[in-house]
Amino acid sequence: MPELPEVETVKRTLNELVTDKTIAAVTVSLPRIIQRPAEPEQFAGALAGRTIRTVERRGKFLRLILDGLVLVSHLRMEGRYGLYRTGEPVDKHTHVIFHFQDGTELRYKDVRQFGTMHLFEPGEDLMLPPLNKLGLEPLEEEFTPEALRGRLKGKTSKMKPLLLNQSYIAGLGNIYVDEALFQAGIHPEAGVDELKPSDWKKLYASIRSTLERAVEAGGSSVKSYVNGQGDAGSFQHELLVYGRKNEPCRSCGTLITKSVVGGRGTHVCLQCQPLPHSLRIASKQQRLSVIK
Ligand SMILES: [Zn+2]
């Protein structure tokens, strides 16, 4: 699933491709992609004649800002946009086409069909689902070590599921949470109250730098992600733990392990990310009870 760096890359590409283009008509061939308004005909009718002014991002969502409307688009697993000339063959996985007045069209393809689009009046989109519950933007000024700690304080889950929760921090997913926790030297199963003040600073810095470097590289092309022009990102070559099970840690040489934390495949260097105290006791007790 595209995470913040990949969606940011799509946003930048769309800004290059479709800014100032005016929509002549919209074709929707898979109605369930359109979540708001209820009828795809209303969606298409409202967009006809509107010009795309800019494209923004909130968490993993794209916000296409038009004259008098905001289109919120989530790519979910495999959604992707591409700009074509009218008349070029249409791929069977194309579900929405924005036909522009200039003879080009923006096509939304989605093999898995999990993507969504919502249409709002300006200002309304940030007050209503799906954007209203999103947490801190990790590349904005509001994201500081104090804000990060404040948002997670008192939570009883483990660090990894907390960082994946979009209502605390928006935009992180499985790849960048594993990378950030590794860089901060924090075990994914550590509890919030097991982090020292210096850990929060390290975690803040690692989230920020991992995302910034990934944006710089155009995102990670793990599985099928490509940007709006069909180009792959290159950050997958720089990943330190994600997808590197049984490969040596680039920092200490210990083999990277993969386990399941909060239902998600999780990559850890147990040397660089030692088990938290609570788990060390638990695993010792488990061993003792096995010996008995
Ligand atoms: Zn290591």
Automatic annotation (TrEMBL):
Gene Ontology BP terms: base-excision repair
Keywords associated with the record: DNA damage, DNA repair, DNA-binding, Glycosidase, Hydrolase, Lyase, Metal-binding, Multifunctional enzyme, Zinc, Zinc-finger
Binding site for DNA: H93, R112, K155
Matching SMART domains: Fapy_DNA_glyco, H2TH
Domain FPG-type positions: 240-274
Cofactors demanded by this protein: Zn(2+)
Active site: P2 (schiff-base intermediate with dna), E3 (proton donor), K60 (proton donor), R264 (proton donor)
EC number: 3.2.2.23, 4.2.99.18
InterPro entries: FPG_cat, FPG_Glyclase, FPG_N, H2TH_FPG, Ribosomal_uS13-like_H2TH, Znf_DNA_glyclase/AP_lyase, Znf_FPG/IleRS
Superkingdom in the source lineage: Bacteria
Gene: mutM
Cofactor notes: Binds 1 zinc ion per subunit.
NCBIfam families, sorted: fpg (TIGR00577), PRK01103.1 (NF002211)
Protein name per Swiss-Prot or TrEMBL: Formamidopyrimidine-DNA glycosylase
Function: Involved in base excision repair of DNA damaged by oxidation or by mutagenic agents. Acts as DNA glycosylase that recognizes and removes damaged bases. Has a preference for oxidized purines, such as 7,8-dihydro-8-oxoguanine (8-oxoG). Has AP (apurinic/apyrimidinic) lyase activity and introduces nicks in the DNA strand. Cleaves the DNA backbone by beta-delta elimination to generate a single-strand break at the site of the removed base with both 3'- and 5'-phosphates.
Catalytic activity from the UniProt record: 2'-deoxyribonucleotide-(2'-deoxyribose 5'-phosphate)-2'-deoxyribonucleotide-DNA = a 3'-end 2'-deoxyribonucleotide-(2,3-dehydro-2,3-deoxyribose 5'-phosphate)-DNA + a 5'-end 5'-phospho-2'-deoxyribonucleoside-DNA + H(+); Hydrolysis of DNA containing ring-opened 7-methylguanine residues, releasing 2,6-diamino-4-hydroxy-5-(N-methyl)formamidopyrimidine
Boundaries of every Formamidopyrimidine-DNA glycosylase catalytic domain copy: 2-115
Keyword S-adenosyl-L-methionine: no
Family: Belongs to the FPG family.
Subunit record text: Monomer.
Molecular function GO terms recorded: 8-oxo-7,8-dihydroguanine DNA N-glycosylase activity; class I DNA-(apurinic or apyrimidinic site) endonuclease activity; damaged DNA binding; double-stranded DNA binding; zinc ion binding
Alphabetized PANTHER family for the sequence: FORMAMIDOPYRIMIDINE-DNA GLYCOSYLASE
